Each structure stands twice: as structure tokens, then as C-alpha cells.
Amino acid sequence: MTDFGIVLSVDLSEERVQIYRLPDSVIMKYLGGEGIATWLYWNAQIFGNAFSPENVLIFATGPLTGIAPGAGRTVVAGKSPQSYPEAFTVSNFGGEWGSELRYAGFDVLILRGKAKEPIYIWIYDDNIEIRRAKHLWGLGALKTREKLVQELNDEEVKVIAIGPAGEKLVRYALIIHRSGHAAGQGGFGAVMGSKNVKAIAVRGTRRELKACDSQALLAEMEKVKSMACHLGIVAPSPVYKAYEELSTAPLTEDLIPLVKKYMKRNTGCHGCPKPCHVYIEIPEMNVKGEMACVQFFYCWLQQGYRGYADEACLLAKHLADDLGLNVYELLQLIPFLMTLYAKGYMSKEKAPGIPFEKYPEREFIEMLLNKIALREGLGDLLAEGTWRFAEKLGLLQQYLSLNDIEEILTSFWGPVAGYGGYGPGVRGYCNHYDPRDYVVSALLWATSHRDPWSSSHEYVNVVHWSGLEFEKQRKLAKYAWNSEEAVHLPGSPGYSEAEVRAAIIVQNRTCVKNSLILCDWLYPLVISPDASRDFIGDVELTARMVNAVMGAKYTEQDLQLIGERIFNLERVILLREGVGDISLPEHLFKYQQRFTGSPPLDREKFNRLLAIYFEMRGWDSKGIPRREKLIQLGLTDVIKFFEEKGVWLE
Amino acid sequence: MVRVKVIIFDPSKCTGCRLCEIACSVKHEDLSSPLLSRVKILKRYEEIFVPARCRQCEDPICLVACPLGAITGDEVLGIIKIDYNKCRGCRVCVELCPYGGIYLHPLKRKAVACDLCGGDPLCVRVCSGKALSYVEEHDIVYKVKREDIFKLFQRGS
Q1: pTM across the whole model
Q2: Looking at the partner chain, which of A155, A270, A281 has a beta carbon nearest the beta carbon of B17?
Q3: Predicted interface score ipTM higher than 0.90
């Protein structure tokens, strides 16, 4: 059996440490990562707000972390201050911290309570210390890592830390490990800050992780290396050249020269067979660090606004990392702020110190990020996140519904402006893989507890990134989601059962992936670069690898059932927290997507689709899991809870 | 003429992923731990990555220094062999090797070093950035360095 399941629980209020082992039955039902974190959160019964000492902050690795290829990630879970309203969610980050925690002897770390003063936690194998961190408080997150490496006198120490934004409880503050490896979404940096925890440093030399069938594991390792490709990019597409030349994704061609100029090499997470980050150094700007994907946010905004990007966009990422800000939120916040400025809602008098006229130059972003992280002036409101900011200004309707806002957003600030959106229910702008382009995206956005796409790329890999022609995509859809009808051309949704099934499979697989934990850009292997087999990948590989490590006998179907269990438990938690509303923002039903030209969603058809989704999920018409479904999934304590609360009234 | 194949390393291509460590450890021990890997990547943040590994020395100090004669040379592979009936874990080899290429096995308490997987090193096979390669010694010049050497002299022409 697996050696996974050792929990280190730290009560910060009492300065007490507890170590225990999760029962094998729980591991078999929830695997690890997101599954275990969800189960722990369900049992912890959090009813206070995100910043109350009662909230838990869970760091969960998976049974594959530190032993399988592309499994260097860690899940972070708890009640999220970024969600609107505050609710349970999960986030995750890559790098090497999770593996190191496992080598130190722990698979899950839970923080409870609140330290009396700023502290950091130092885990050196089974030696766990809570140390004062007054000297670190106020420092940037990257600087904190450097200080700790010096202080602990070990360059192999793996650190996660928060920046000033986390300390000041910015609702989208991140927890960062190495530069470029952050748990961004969810605002868990602020939760860590609310507990007065500046950093967690780990060095692990004590435990060897067991491979039950090492021959099989090594065979899969080489297979992954030969088959995996970032975001499924296998054929010429707008981002193909950057992928080929820089081994990173997804950059448009015009960014290649800028990145090349400062790039030293590719870097990746622990055990990655296909590293996706570029390591960049700009000595004159004091910029050093790894970058991938959304960390190019300011480059995209610059490109969208004035056609080209400059060094300031690399600096912007560095500042966001060091101050501890989630760039996904900035990607919708900045264009919204600029739209308010353009429309006269915002002026220099109302926002002293923010140089609007300098957008999108270096001065603007430097000043803005500092103001937000330190909650100075208007930064104090901006630190609440786009949704709460708009609400506090009385502009929520404008933000979401007015036609001209969307027009300004997309035509003026660029195609990615407004990406992001967060939390259960109606949740902001929701146009990361716009629901109007792909109706599967609409289903995912409507039913998820967070921005769904950051960890569910398997679908958009095929339809958005692969570069494959539509006929090939249909074959892949048949292979991965049981029907060729699961994919449609952007903007021409089929509103079909096949798309619902695809959405459900994707969600279930995502839960599994985040429980093992495997990298979303590589797994599941839906696509392979092998043209002779129509680019069809190997989705069963996940199960084989789990079995090789854990000595289990899971099939892909078994894993999907586990995924379904986790997804349903998450759903139940949202219902418990009173945020189980399933809906999409109004503008998606009213206006076409200005950039892609996709028509608005058809409300009637979409509602019918949701009804099919509920039926397939085994949920009632309000989206509450039925008794039979909960029995099938073995969620018996949930049944008890539902009965006590009188949830099933139909 | 002696023909030997050697593992060489290109620091600019290493991504610091340590998949070589995982693969080596799992292959030799059925366990994953950086401490059990025959190759260990040392890092200075994300700026410098270097591997500590057996350099396949021609006149290995570990072999010369072993007071018990536990270390011998494998002429065909060009690597050392350790006789576990003789090794008593005194760490003389560990202390003297300047490259961190030989170490004391944390569980078995005997000296351990790279065995080139018998001539098909797995670390090389899994290296995603092709930072590690296993080449004929003479090809270091004729193939690996070829383009770089051309570049050096292109400026003058």
C-alpha cells in the first residue's frame, strides 16, 4: 500500500504541533491533494470568515508528488477571501516545496488558529519550529526566501512566503515559492497573513517515497517524456513558434525577441519531463526569475493597448511576485480601472498618486502594484478585488452589464482584458476561455467554485491550443470524452448532451489530477505529438502511473469515480456555505464576444443544458446531489448532514 | 586507443527539474529520495544548477584511496565498481572525491556511485532539456562542442 497520508497539523494559537496518519480508507477514497484537502475542510466545519483564526489553511501534496514525472505540485485549500462571497476553494503551486515536504516526512500540512506575532515555520525533517519573523515582516516574498536561505544556512531549503500584500490582507494575495511558482488564485496569501505566518521553510532528508512497481513507473516516466506537450500544442498555431523556440507557452510570436533577449534557460517544477518556465534576468531592473503563461499579463495588456510590449512587462511580473499579488486578478482589475478612468468615473483627484496617463508604461504599474499591496489611497479599495471594488463604488452593474464596458474592455485594453473572475455563483467577468466561444466553458464556469480553467486545460488544449484542424479535434473528442460532438467550432455551440458529458468528465479528471497531484499542462495525456496515430494520447496512463506508485489497481473509470466523489463533496461544501448558486453573468447572454465574434449564449438552450447536467450529475433541479448519488459515492456523512438540515425537500 | 563513453553535462540546458534524481533513485532503490540518487543536482536559486556525480576519472582518487581495496575499475564501461563484501563504510572515498560523485548510502551504509546503468544511463534518457548526454569521449569535441567552436571562429572570418 501507499506510504501517503502523514498529516502535520500546527495550531498557531497554542503553538502546538500534532502528527497523525490518515486512514487508508480515506486515501483510497480521496487520493490526496484536492481530494484530501476537501475532505479535511468538510470535517473541519469552517463557519467563520476567511480571516478568522478558525479558518484552516491546508497544504496537501499527492501520492505522486516527489516520485512521478510532472507531479511537483501542492494544493492549497481553505476558505477563500477572493471568492465572492467568501467560500471554500482550492489553489495550487508548482516548484519543489511539496516534494521537499514529503521527503521531510509529511504529506499534508494544516495551519489552524493565529500566531500572536509574525512567525515563520521551519520544518527540518521531524524537527518543527515556530520561529519569530519580525525581521521578515514587510519584506518582499522573494527577498524573504533569500533571507531564510541565509538564516537557515542551507541553499537546498524550500521556502513558501507571502509578500506585503499577504500581510495587508489583500484579497488576492498569493503564496509564492520560487519566483513564478505561486498559488495565485484564492487569495490564500492573505489567509496566511491573517494567521501571522510569513513563511514556511522545509528541508527534507528523512523519508524515501516508495514505488510499488518501479519498472512500470520508469516505463511510464519515459512515455510521458516522449508524449507530453504543453497545452497540447502539436501543430502550427499562433503560439506554436514560441513553443518550438522557447519551450514555453502560450506566447505570441511578437513576444519572442523580448523574451529571448533576457532568457537564460528553461526551468521547471520538480520532476518535470517538459519544463515550461523561462528564467529571465534583467540586471538593470533587478529582475530575476521564472515566468510562464499568465505571468506575462502586463505584456498582453501592453500588446492589446499599443501593439507591442517592453521590459516593463517583465518587471511587472517580478513586482507582483515580490509584493505577493495574483496577476489573474490584475488582468481584469487594471482594464476595469482604466475603463473607469476613460469614462470619467476615475480621476487623479480620486486616485492620488496613480499615474493613469502613463498606462501601460513602467511608472504606472510600479506605482499601482505598490499602492495595492500596501493598501495606500485608492489601493485600499483595489485590494478588495475587482468585484468588491466595483461594488463599493456602486458600479457593479456597469462592470458586468453595460454593453459599452465590454466594448471598451475588449477593443481598447486588448482581447484578454477582463480575464479572471472568481468565486462561486455570479463571479465577475468569466471570460478566461469565453463561455460564448465554448459552451463547455459555460458549464464549467457556472458549476465551479473557482476559475475553472487554470486546472482543467484538457478540453481547451484540444479546441483552443493544439493547432489541429477541426476533424482531428473531433477524433480526439471521441477518444477523450466519448463523442465527436463534444467539440464545436468557437461560437457555434451544439448545446448537446455530448458537451455536458465532456464538461463532467473534465471536471472529474481535474479533481483526480489535483489530488495526485499532476501538472495540468501535461495531464491527462489527451493529445500526443504523434501524427501517425492522429495525435491521440494516452489518458489511461494516469491510472497506470498511480498503480505503479501506490500498488493499487485503479482503472481510468475508478479514478473518474473518485473525481466525481471529490467534485460532489465540494458541491456539498458550497451548499453548506450558502453559496451554491449556479449561474453566469448577464452580459454573456446579452452581447456577442467582441473579439471572437461569438454570439451571446442562448438562455433557454443553456438552461436546458444545465438541466441535463444536473440529471447526469445525479443532482436535483436545484443542483443538490440526490440521496442515491451520495450513497453511490459513499458520502454517508453528507447524507446525515443533509437530513439534519432538511435539505431534500422535493 | 581507448574508447570510453562518458556522461557530460551542459549547465545552460539543465532546467533544474531533478527528474534524473527521481529516475536514478527509483531505478536503483525502488524508492524516491534525492539522497538515494547517484546524481544530485545542486542549485544556487534558479541561477546555477550543477550536478554532483561520478566524473569517471581515469585515475580515480576513490580507487587509490580505498584502504580495503573495495573499489576497482570497470575497463569496458570506464567506471568504478564497488565490492560490497569489502566496503565497510569508512567514507574515505566520500571525503576525498572532489566532485561529490561517491557517497555513503543512507540506508545500506556502504559507498555508492554511478554504475552507468550498465551502459544505458537512465538519467540521460529522462533528461528533458538534454543537459545530460552519454557520448563517446572523442565526440565531446567532434560533435558536442562542434557548433560552439565554429561560432568562436566565425567572427574572424
Answers
A1: 0.96
A2: A270
A3: yes
Note the pLDDT of residue A332: 83
Q: Does domain A6-203 have CATH number 3.40.50.300?
A: no
Cβ neighbors of B1 (< 8 A, separation 6 or more) are: none
A vs B: CB pairs below 8 A: 105
CB-CB contact of B113 with B38 (8 Å): yes
Q: Where are the beta strands (DSSP E) in A244-333?
A: 263-267, 277-282, 287-291
- pLDDT digits 0-9 by tens, A358-368: 999 999 999 99
Inter-chain CB proximity B26 and A225 less than 8 Å: no
List of chain A residues whose C-beta atoms are within 8 Å of the C-beta of residue B107: 208
Q: Domain ranges in chain B?
A: 54-113
Q: Looking at beta carbons, which residues of chain A come within 8 Å of B14?
A: 265
A229-412 and A6-203 share a CATH fold: no
B12 touching A (Cβ < 8 Å): yes
Question: Which of A365, A423, A351 is closest to A393 using CA atoms?
Answer: A351
Q: Which of A100-104, A257-261, A273-277, A583-587 has the lowest mean pLDDT?
A: A583-587
The CA distance from B58 to the nearest CA of chain A, in Å, is 31
Look at residue A400 in the predicted model and tell me its pLDDT: 64
Please indicate if any CB of chain A lies within 8 Å of the CB of B19.
yes
Of A72, A214, A266, the CB nearest to B30: A214
Q: What does the longest C-alpha to C-alpha distance in chain A come to?
A: 67
Distance (Å) from the alpha carbon of B30 to chain A's nearest alpha carbon: 5
CA-CA distance, B29 to B36, in Å (whole number)? 7
Q: What class, spelled out in words, does domain A439-619 have in CATH? A: mainly alpha
- Nearest CA distance, A565 vs chain B (angstrom): 29
pLDDT digits (tens, 9 = 90+) for A78-108: 999 998 889 999 999 999 999 999 999 999 9
- Is residue A423 within 8 Å of A82, Cβ to Cβ? yes
Give the 3-state secondary structure of A533-556. Answer: HCCEEECCHHHHHHHHHHCCCCCH
Q: Could you tell me the fold of the domain covering A229-412?
A: 1.10.569
Does residue A649 have a pLDDT over 70?
no
User: Per residue in B127-139, pLDDT tens?
Assistant: 989 999 999 999 9
Q: Is B125 on the interface with A (CB under 8 A)?
A: yes
Domain boundaries, chain A: 6-203, 229-412, 439-619
Check residue A417 and give its pLDDT.
Answer: 66
Residues of A with CB below 8 A from B100's CB? none
Residues A214, B12: C-beta atoms closer than 8 Å? no
- Across the interface, whether the CB atoms of B32 and A275 are under 8 A apart is answered no
CATH assignment of B54-113? 3.30.70.20
| pLDDT score of A411 | 65
